[in-house]
Amino acid sequence: MSEDALDASRAEAPPRRSRRAWLVGGIALAALALGAGTAWYHSRPTATTDGAAILGLVLPDADGRQQAMAQWRGKVLVVNFWATWCAPCREEMPQFVRMQSRDAGKGVQFVGIAVDDAAKVRDFAREIGLNYPSLIGGFGAIELSKSLGNQLSALPFTVVLDRDGRVALSHLGPLKSADLDHLLGRLLANG
Predict the structure, then answer these.
(1) DSSP code for 158
(2) Distance between CA 146 and CA 140 in Å, rounded?
């Protein structure tokens, strides 16, 4: 092959990307998708408005005791799907601890559903002073979250039920404290 033909074939072929370039590009695309997903879930209606799937759950807590979600029927219920290995989950949970302390007497109940191991959940609960139940949902919890609007199967994912058990919010990604405060105020005023 002549030097001119070799140069022409190089010009036609796209440059090869290294594995690192593909990895960085993939991470950037995933971050973009997660960011778009957060805005979409925050501003659109949920996949379902019926919280029966959540209220019908019975899951073990971190100590192995079975807990029925129906025990919190009639309260404004904030259900957070999370895991100890999820950095954004770990960052938003202290705000939930503060809100649980502040709003429990008003009829608000936070419940975590961990996609995790019970021992890791117990350790993390002690670390942050968790003051609300965290149930062990395992990877089946991801399937439940998908039925509630979590199309990316990502964490954290939060669902808020009103006092009548209807889904008031389905949110993928960290939930801003001011947004949750506003929603809780509205739901408590209507109840």
Answers:
(1) E
(2) 10
What distance separates the 2 farthest-apart alpha carbons in the chain?
Answer: 83
Which burial class, exposed, middle or buried, applies to 188 when counting CB atoms under 10 A from its CB (0-12, 13-18, 19+)? Answer: middle
How does pLDDT run across 72-125, given as a tens digit for each residue? 999 999 999 999 999 999 999 999 999 999 999 999 999 999 999 999 999 999
Residues 92, 174 contacting (CB under 8 angstroms): yes
Q: Contact, 85 vs 116, CB < 8 A? A: yes
d(CA 35, CA 165): 28
Which residue segments constitute the domains of the chain, with CATH numbers given?
45-190 (3.40.30.10)
CA dihedral 104, 49, 146, 39 (to 10 degrees): -80
How far apart CA 44 and CA 169 sit, in angstroms, is 9
